[in-house]
Amino acid sequence: MAEAKGKLKRDRFYTEEDADLGLIKDRPIAVLGYGSQGHAQAQNMRDQGLDVIIGNVEDRFAEQARGDGFEVVPIPDAVQRGRVILMLIPDEVQPAVFKTDIGPHLTPDHTLVFASGYAVHFGLITPPDFLDVILSVPTCVGAIVRERYARGQGIFGHFGVYQDVTGQAHDLALAVSMGIGILRFGATETTFGDEVAVNLFAETAGLSGMIKYLLTAFEVLVEAGFSAEKAYGETFYEIQFLTESICRMPFGQAVAFGSPTATYLALTKTGDVVTEDVRERMRQMLARIKAGELVRDWNLEQLAGCPVLNQCRREILEHPISEVEELFLERKLASGGV
Ligand code: NDP
Questions:
Q1: Residue ranges lining ligand 1, Cβ < 6 Å
Q2: pLDDT (tens digit, 9 = 90+) per residue, 250-259?
Q3: Ligand 1 nearest-atom number relative to CA 65
Q4: How remote is the CA of residue 60 from the centroid of ligand 1, in Å?
Q5: Distant-in-sequence, close-in-space partners of 68: CB < 8 Å, separation ≥ 6
Q6: Distance separating alpha carbons of residues 185 and 42, to the nearest angstrom
Q7: Beta strands at 29-32 and 52-55: parallel, antiparallel or unpaired
Q8: Atom of ligand 1 nearest to the CA of 61
Q9: Alpha helix (H) residue ranges in 140-276
């Protein structure tokens, strides 16, 4: 890969200097859903003087939004009152809610904003052709989106345009991205298809591989007779420190300048466990994602009542690491640190 240095495809980083928040200042923002992203994006936007109302069913999230000082109305009312509509309900329920509560109330002066390319790219929602449809995506959970914003910081994100009816969709996507806080850090432009492909790839090839890798490392040590504390401490616990290092310094520095022994072993054995055939399997995973195969599987799973998901959840919650994790968590709190 070293020969690729200097030849990689690169994106422009857009920042607040590229955006005009004024474009959405006089247009009420309807945040649909007050969960992970909803609570964060709504508060970040309100902090910048934008006029935000929340659309939510009467549920615990509605109560939370009222507690945070927002006006909460049913989703169809929020769509009618808002002009910029942020779709912040889970991807898997968006199609049904769109059909009954959102789509029928849309008019040409609405701007429809998604935080994921999922529903539109895979054809689960077909937005009407008379309005701008854009994307503004933070790359992490809402709690961090809000926490960083409140501390005066930002996080990386993406923005994009699916449909530009007014000729202003690109600028509107930048304005919304500034509102939710991602331009403080910087955002790159993407398409709905690329956003969802890369995101699902990270979740399957990346996150899924990491879960399996950590559990297997733990299991091999325990199987060989080491205590759960030692196995956990050298696998799961250490990963926290590597992650923290990567947040503070370039990846190369973080992995190349540990103790010489650790660095030698880590860098010379990278291909022994994660062998080259993983690359081919990752390529196949990406191809399956782009072909919509994983989304089709997920849709069928939901129709069946999520038996596989529920079984996987049970298995991971019942994994023996949970025993030792409790102790580590207790010690973490008791020692006032990590
Ligand atoms: P959440 O699961 O946190 O959303 C919960 C909200 O959706 C609540 O307000 C809930 O209301 C509402 N909701 C759930 N089901 C329904 C339903 N059937 N009808 C009406 N409202 C419903 O979602 P996220 O914030 O995680 O995701 C929102 C969007 O942001 C998605 O497109 C996602 O891909 C994207 N995104 C998420 C990220 C993340 O890390 N979470 C990161 C980047 C993008 P109640 O329960 O009160 O009914």
A1: 33-38, 56-57, 59-62, 88-91, 93, 97, 115-116, 118, 137-138, 140-142
A2: 999 988 888 8
A3: 9
A4: 13
A5: 39, 42, 43
A6: 18
A7: parallel
A8: 47
A9: 142-150, 169-180, 192-201, 209-223, 228-232, 238-248, 251-256, 260-268, 270-273
- Going by alpha carbons, the residue nearest to atom 39 of ligand 1 is 141
Per-residue model confidence as pLDDT tens digits over 96-147: 999 999 999 999 999 999 999 999 999 999 999 999 999 999 999 999 999 9
Phi/psi-derived region of residue 55, left when phi > 0, alpha when psi is between -120 and 50, beta in every other case:
beta
pLDDT at 312: 96
Query: Whose alpha carbon is nearest atom 35 of ligand 1?
Result: 115
Q: What is the pLDDT, as a whole number, of residue 336?
A: 78
What's residue 7's pLDDT?
Answer: 87
In our burial notation (b when 16+ CB lie closer than 10 A, e otherwise), range 192-202 reads: bebbbbbbbbe
Q: Is pTM beyond 0.70 here? A: yes
